[in-house]
Amino acid sequence: MTSEAERDERHRARMARQKAVVDAKIASAAVERGVVVVNTGNGKGKSTAGFGMVARALGHGMRVGVVQFIKGSSTTGEEAFFRRFPEVEYHVMGEGFTWETQDRARDTAAAQAAWAVAGGMLRNPGIALVLLDELNIALKLGYVAVDDVLAALRARPAAQHVVITGRGAPDALIDYADTVTDMHLVKHAFQAGIRAQQGVEL
Amino acid sequence: MTSEAERDERHRARMARQKAVVDAKIASAAVERGVVVVNTGNGKGKSTAGFGMVARALGHGMRVGVVQFIKGSSTTGEEAFFRRFPEVEYHVMGEGFTWETQDRARDTAAAQAAWAVAGGMLRNPGIALVLLDELNIALKLGYVAVDDVLAALRARPAAQHVVITGRGAPDALIDYADTVTDMHLVKHAFQAGIRAQQGVEL
After folding, report:
1. Whose CB has fewer CB within 10 Å in chain B, the N or C terminal residue?
2. Among B26, B56, B188, whose Cβ lies nearest the Cβ of A77?
3. Burial of B13 by CB count in 10 Å (0-12 exposed, 13-18 middle, 19+ buried)?
4. Mean pLDDT taken over chain A
5. Domains of chain B: total
6. Does residue B115 lie within any of the structural domains?
């Protein structure tokens, strides 16, 4: 046997073992139900991955609900894009970032209004995926109560998926969620003086 | 002053300070150029965030190139969705996961063919965003050389953005990239026996 052939054979054997492990895991994962996904942490990609799931759901012909908490004042690429689709119900909270308004009472009222829209989606079995973008920020600031969110998640239609994004997800939400990713900042272009770019951040 | 009014005023003052910090950061980030974004780590959301950036770019009317390395054998929701758009050039590598093929020579040839398509996109100034999905896996397995990737990134059109996803991004790529996120698994529904779901993983 040549060394190259040996290397190929070792690769084949290693991959065959890996396939056995993967196949066994897939066979044992038998439960089908709606899942709650939380994207948190200080890095880029929390909302972006939420919108990637919206695209994925649309690829399967699902109906999707989106509520953007906090980020209401800027029109982003996602909003321009996903508003084109009749399968997407898209709601943006009326106010901007909380450091733009500097008004706690107004922010609370706006967040509660957005949460009321989200609550309607979480009771609607016709909506297969609900994206609650930056809800964690509203929870952290106390504009929406985590107990209200948990109650709505528990009572939602069994097949409905929910994605919740934003820094600082509360522990009770992390405990309840099925899939949680901590998106950790290794570095960001912004730190090197690069402006937020269309198609990347905007 | 009532306690509630004091609390509102403290909030306003804190947010005013935060706005000053944010505004100064935005003003100092003056460079405009294409950025390289790397999504790595063992958690969910690496590819999903890449596809979220594709949606964002389409919202701005940009042209996008997608090359899926490794994941070629399954038709996912993203592929079904983004193939609808004439602005998206979508290429899927011909073979499936490497533990499905168990054939290093065939995998290498397929990865090199996919890399050739990616190289064409990285020389095309008409493509504003290039998503190289799971390229990190092909780099890790040695199917594509990291030096070839770095040379192509350095020589690409100045305004072009590139997103590279997959576990185990090589250090040289992390060093070169502008924005890097380590998507860390906190937990995954799969671990609790929940099957991969349409609109979430598929």
Report:
1. N
2. B56
3. exposed
4. 89
5. 2
6. yes
